[in-house]
Amino acid sequence: MLPTGNWLEINANLMIPGLWDLIVLTRANPANLFESWGKQPVFEKNAPAIVAGLKLDGSVVPPADVLALLQGTGILDPIPFRSVSGARVPSGEYDVIIASGTVAWSARRVTELKCWVDVGLKLGRLFLLAGNRQCNSSTEVDNPYVKEYQAKHGVTPTEEQILPWIAMDILGISHEDFTLISDSTLNNNIMALAQMYPDLERGMVYVPGNANAMIPLQVRRGLRTAFSGFDQNGEQLCFSQDGFPLATTPEQAADTVHYQRPLTVFAGLVRSLNEFHNLNS
Question: Quick check: pTM over 0.85?
Answer without folding.
Answer: yes
